[in-house]
Amino acid sequence: MFNKRRVPCGLTVTLLFSLQSVSLSAAGDCAPYPVSVNLNNVTLGNTTARGVSLSVGSPKQSFAFLPQWPLNSTFVYGTDGYCGESWSEAGCRTFRGGAYDSSSSTTYKDAPSNHIEASPYPDFTWGKDDLIFNSNTTLLDFPIGIARSDWGAQGYHPQVAFGLGRNSTILNSLYTAGHIASRSWAMFWGRTGGTANTQQDGNFVFGGFDKSKASGDNYTSDLNYSNKNCASGMLVTITDLELNFPNGTTASLFDGMQSSAILACIVPDYPVLMTLPRDPYFERFESLTNESFSYRGFGVYYYGMLYPNPDSIYTGDLTVTLNNGFSVRIPNDQLVVPNLTIDPSTGSLNANGSTPELVINSIQQVNQGDLPQLGRQFLSSAYLMSNQDSNTFTLWNAALEEEENLVAIDTNNKPVDIYCAATPTSTSSSTSSPHSIGNHDKKLSTGAIVGIAIGSAAALAIVAAGVFLVVSKKKKKGVVRVNYYPTAAYRDPPSELGPSHMEPHVPNELPAKPPSPSHRFANIQEL
Ligand SMILES: *[C@@H]1O[C@H](CO)[C@@H](O)[C@H](O)[C@H]1NC(C)=O
Ligand SMILES: *[C@@H]1O[C@H](CO)[C@@H](O)[C@H](O)[C@H]1NC(C)=O
Ligand SMILES: *[C@@H]1O[C@H](CO)[C@@H](O)[C@H](O)[C@H]1NC(C)=O
Ligand SMILES: *[C@@H]1O[C@H](CO)[C@@H](O)[C@H](O)[C@H]1NC(C)=O
Ligand SMILES: *[C@@H]1O[C@H](CO)[C@@H](O)[C@H](O)[C@H]1NC(C)=O
Ligand SMILES: *[C@@H]1O[C@H](CO)[C@@H](O)[C@H](O)[C@H]1NC(C)=O
Ligand SMILES: *[C@@H]1O[C@H](CO)[C@@H](O)[C@H](O)[C@H]1NC(C)=O
Ligand SMILES: *[C@@H]1O[C@H](CO)[C@@H](O)[C@H](O)[C@H]1NC(C)=O
Ligand SMILES: *[C@@H]1O[C@H](CO)[C@@H](O)[C@H](O)[C@H]1NC(C)=O
Ligand SMILES: *[C@@H]1O[C@H](CO)[C@@H](O)[C@H](O)[C@H]1NC(C)=O
Ligand SMILES: *[C@@H]1O[C@H](CO)[C@@H](O)[C@H](O)[C@H]1NC(C)=O
């Protein structure tokens, strides 16, 4: 079906480059090629960190970004990563996923702004620099915040981040510049087991998804912002959690309590598979697997549970079932992993198999009532796509194909597999044009589009009218969205974290109050 919403990009690009005569049919049925970025061990000087591999500035500085909610802007840590005194520069760089040195980027510009990200985010120094996705796609003069403090997110959300909140600058800029067909994205975390054959790079796709990572039927649901503790809007209901023992038998952590489903929020950067209320679910896990946990990990799988003895680990899988029967089986090699920590003095990552970690954060005491979260280890086995324009998110079982097969997704969440000939692709390969593309795209107003179109052929004018309608429709829709966004969703990081909250680690006692960042969310009553 002809989709008018795709016209603005095709039209804009065509007019901008005035390459050859306009091909309306091509502009109408095509979409920009999705922007795919590696999600892997990013090299940061002499260390590495896992994240979405984006570069900033000229010459390029590497970063391991993670997405965050409700963040809208994109931020980095500067040469001071605020890790505390016991961390070296190299250790902090690994922990933060990079350290931005604006003074060594020739494209950096100061861009003071009174823009503030709502709580819990810290103050930023605002600047602009080029954000490089891959060889096809660069956003020029992209606004970037440089954090001016640690903000108490500890090991939960430690890294440089691009915001995928409801007014995400990265999605809006890519969309406005015609780089993506809709404000959609898809994430495969990859696999991070203890051995080479249980490790795989992931990828992060803007404007579509990687079909080769999606297997079987999908689970699609509306983004739902009604729960103020779920800023991502990706609320799911877990109806069963089942242990799959190696001998083929299964046992449910729900133990017949099928009526008490767990409401959970998908938080794709959260460092473990999931948080799970201790009573009764985690206690049931302990009794079914004959294990009693007393220690937490403070490494990369922050606040997971440590096995005291590698000989007594659970060797089965865990199957998560959602409300309509969709289920994802997390294999043992992604569920129980070596304790992976950053050496604070060298920044190297050390995997320690003598205290394996179960990537489940048992929530108890003050956190018992928190909304459970499904984190990035869930995305080792599930593939996730989200589309702000269609207001939906989609899950599949993850397929482990290495080869990419990208599919663009339009604003109605429909796949489009015809790509515009004049996407920014063909132009950014030439060395000088990217700067002008970015600048022009940003400045080209609806009026300009319509104005140029009127000067063109009659056919063009008709399309322009379509564009105009679409743009005004979009504006209206935007207003509606803003209306139902909760205003008081977030609390400041808790003061009870004490002086240690500046440090990316905390005391090593299980019963101690878990300094969960979910403290910054109000407790929810539904559970
Ligand atoms: C992101 O944008 C939405 C919509 O404008 C806004 O409600 C929300 O507070 C913003 N997030 C932050 C962290 O400022
Ligand atoms: C750049 O775009 C072309 C198609 O337009 C695609 O074939 C190629 O794989 C893209 N390169 C990257 C790095 O995404
Ligand atoms: C979205 O963010 C832009 C700045 O990036 C701001 O000008 C605009 O008012 C915001 N829109 C909403 C609805 O919050
Ligand atoms: C999800 O599945 C439905 C029903 O099979 C299908 O119509 C839809 O296109 C799928 N969504 C995506 C994004 O593939
Ligand atoms: C959002 O989720 C809540 C809680 O699960 C549910 O009651 C509500 O109907 C949902 N709203 C929409 C629009 O789906
Ligand atoms: C399978 O293993 C589980 C856990 O060790 C055990 O509880 C169960 O009895 C075993 N089932 C059979 C049929 O051996
Ligand atoms: C459970 O673990 C304890 C020691 O941790 C051991 O003595 C006991 O035999 C185990 N029980 C089973 C059924 O494996
Ligand atoms: C990286 O280099 C710094 C010095 O610049 C050094 O202190 C640190 O130990 C090195 N780390 C690794 C993992 O080699
Ligand atoms: C990525 O880094 C982790 C942690 O250091 C390591 O265990 C893993 O082997 C690395 N993966 C690849 C593909 O290099
Ligand atoms: C692994 O952890 C154990 C227990 O915490 C510790 O004794 C051992 O020294 C560690 N090994 C390495 C290589 O760090
Ligand atoms: C995790 O491993 C590191 C070294 O790799 C070790 O220093 C640390 O003590 C381990 N954590 C626990 C709680 O055993």
UniProtKB/TrEMBL annotation:
<feature type="signal peptide">
    <location>
        <begin position="1"/>
        <end position="27"/>
    </location>
</feature>
<keyword id="KW-0812">Transmembrane</keyword>
<keyword id="KW-0472">Membrane</keyword>
<feature type="domain" description="Peptidase A1">
    <location>
        <begin position="50"/>
        <end position="396"/>
    </location>
</feature>
<keyword id="KW-0732">Signal</keyword>
<dbReference type="InterPro" id="IPR033121">
    <property type="entry name" value="PEPTIDASE_A1"/>
</dbReference>
<protein>
    <submittedName>
        <fullName>Aspartic peptidase domain-containing protein</fullName>
    </submittedName>
</protein>
<feature type="transmembrane region" description="Helical">
    <location>
        <begin position="448"/>
        <end position="471"/>
    </location>
</feature>
<dbReference type="InterPro" id="IPR021109">
    <property type="entry name" value="Peptidase_aspartic_dom_sf"/>
</dbReference>
<feature type="region of interest" description="Disordered">
    <location>
        <begin position="491"/>
        <end position="527"/>
    </location>
</feature>
<keyword id="KW-1133">Transmembrane helix</keyword>
